[in-house]
Amino acid sequence: MKLGLVTYQIGKDMDVPTLIKTCEETGFEGVELRTTHAHGVEVTLSAAERADVRKMFDDSSVELAGLGSAFEYHSADPAELRRNIDGTAAYVDLAADLGCSGVKVRPNGFPEGKSEEETLQQIGESLRECGEYAQGKGVQIRLEVHGRGTQYVPHIKTILEVADHANVVACWNSNQPEAEEGSIAPYFDMLRGRIGLVHCRDLCLTNYPWQELFGLLCGSGYRGFVLIEAPQTSDPVRVMSYIRTLFDAYMAPIKG
Question: pTM of the entire structure?
Answer without folding.
Answer: 0.96
